[in-house]
Amino acid sequence: MNLSTSLLLSTLTLACSAAFAAEQPVIGLITKTETNPFFVKMKEGAQAEAKKMGAKLMTAAGKKDGDTAAQIAAIENMTAAGAKTILITASGDAIIPTVKKVQAKGVQVIALDSPFEGADALFATDNYKAGVMIGQYAKAALGDKPAKIAMLDLFPGHPVGAQRHNGFMTGFGLKANDAKSNELSSTPETVCAGDTDGNQAKGQTAMENCLQKNPDINVVYTINEPAAAGAYNALKKAGKEKGVLILSVDGGCQGIKDTAKGIITATSQQYPLKMAALGVAAGVQYAKDGKRSSGYTDTGVTLISAKAIAGVDSKDAKTGLDLCWGTK
Amino acid sequence: MSTTSKRPIPWGALGPWIALAVTCLFFALQTERFLSGTNLSLVLQQVMVVGVLAIGQSLIILTAGIDLSCGMVMALSGVVMTKFAVDYGMNPYLATACGLGVAVGFGFLNGLLVTRVKLPPFIVTLGTLNIAFAITQIYSESQTISNLPESMTALGNTFNLGSTEVSLGTVTMLLLYVLAWFVLRETAPGRHLYAVGNNPEAARLTGISVDRVLITVYAMAGLFYGIAAMLSVARTGVGDPNAGQTENLDAITAVVLGGTSLFGGRGIILGSLVGAVIVGVFRNGLTLMGVASVYQTLITGILVILAVAADQMSRKGAR
């Protein structure tokens, strides 16, 4: 084979693959970070679904939660690269103007997990409901004992954090802001609050300080399962792990294992893989017939606990492990 | 060359102690639980990781450098030691040694790039920060490593001192500070370090191998980050790839609050301990008072600026 034939052949191959790529719907997925297991799972789910449906998936992520600059750049880059649908777990409202711009160019933008104004559609957990469910469980498990609650939150001003927090308090029967509020409610029963950044070491520090403030804390709300594991560490070191209820949200595989062991009393499980799969399907649909998705699709939430309590609907840890984040 | 010990005490040396005393007095008046032995022991446990990172950071800042990579190198070291022990079933002590080795290696790399390639420390460590972070995430697949052998969490154990429980990690941190203080104040290598920080050219002319001092300092700092990783692992009971994300700046904050000059050559290492404790006291005290945590961040920011301003003013006064 001489040089010109090989050049010709490779040009032909390139042309063919380009033609094929043009027919393949291109879908972008932008997550908050690349390191949070929740988003890692979401990406895996999207990749599997895209492969199954013959779509091409591009992915990008911010460096940390709140990194909207990286997300805006990713929206622009993906649009330039020909994505017709972009799925995004928004790090903040700063992305909205950019979203509007690319929507005007015919790109469908779907919110996964975190809602924002102007998205074509939203596939997400109802975080308020997730909070309500663990609140109801905690109330039923505590019975008539006076509640002394520690609230281990994410960080100030985060909608998901506020929804879970306020949902929990509502479920527990305390007065709290509604699902739309971004403010963390507080009542005399919530004796302590601390920020954890959703991280185990900071969850432990926050709980230690809370126990100093009030050693009789008997209910601990945690923003996620790493924070719950940290809170348990603090309680155990203080010799108080027995009889304290630890409630959480997420339902990751590690978190469910902790729930099986009784480290976490109950957790609200969410389904990132389902969000991703629905998002990819909506993207393929849009490429086929140009019909945009719309409205809110609740991807569901299940209460998981090793111990069932009368009057509260929950599934055991084994079911939780089978379902963890929507695998199997 | 014993200029450091005979010089009159600079403003920067007393400032941190006064700030700590005022802070403690304030919280003691606000909440009765604050001054209990248990609570104070707790604050020390909470700051031990940042405290040990700050030793390494102090050494580097004393040479007029800075290390942005410290938290990420700690995270990588912690992931390596726990993963080696859990996934490969390696002897826990050997696994820990491997983790320490990785941290020292990163420090050594920083030192080489600063001295041999003559890059500014800020840029070098900005690069290694990202490299260490990425390797940590790739290697751990962003998953925490749990089910650690007992020996790896032993530093988290406590013993009774009177009615107060003291953790072995706290004692380790305090011993490391005493050791670093002694070496810096009483030994030739310690004085060389100050000399290099004060005026590298003058140090070179007196026969000090500036490059060798710097490489040693960066590698030693890495060792301290590795020890911080051991403490972090012992405290939380897991290898956490997301550890160290805020601790790198916390460590720099502690050093600056402690009165060590960012221009190099001046500072007392024990000040960094005080700086770390001040931040821990605010976090603890404000929680006891029920104040939202953003105020802690606000106050820390103000304190950092005051500390650097005091350093600047004492410099001008000295001229």
Keywords:
heterodimer, A: 328 residues, alpha/beta, Rossmann fold, 2 domains, 6-stranded parallel beta sheet, 6-stranded mixed beta sheet, elongated, B: 319 residues, mainly alpha, two-stranded antiparallel sheet, 2 strands, 73% helix, disordered N terminus
Care to describe what's here?
The complex is a heterodimer of chains A (328) and B (319). By secondary structure, chain A is α/β, with parallel strands linked by helices. Helices cover 46% and strands 18% of the residues of chain A. Chain A has two domains: 3-125 and 272-293, Rossmann fold (3-Layer(aba) Sandwich), CATH 3.40.50.2300; 127-269 and 303-323, Rossmann fold, CATH 3.40.50.2300. In chain A, the strands form two sheets. Chain A has a six-stranded parallel beta sheet with strand order 2-1-3-4-5-11, with helices on both faces. Chain A has a six-stranded mixed beta sheet with strand order 7-6-8-9-10-12, sandwiched between helices. In chain A, helix 2 (37-53) packs parallel to helix 10, helix 7 (200-213) crosses helix 8 and helix 9 packs antiparallel against helix 11 (317-323). The longest helix of chain A has 21 residues, at 3-23. Mean pLDDT of chain A is 90; it is low at 16-21. Chain B has helices spanning 3-6, 11-30, 37-62, 70-87, 92-115, 121-140, 168-186, 188-198, 200-205, 210-236, 247-257, 269-289, 294-318; strands at 158-161, 164-167. In chain B, a hairpin with a 2-residue loop joins strand 1 and strand 2 (164-167). Chain B is globular and about 55 Å long. Chain A: Keywords: Signal.
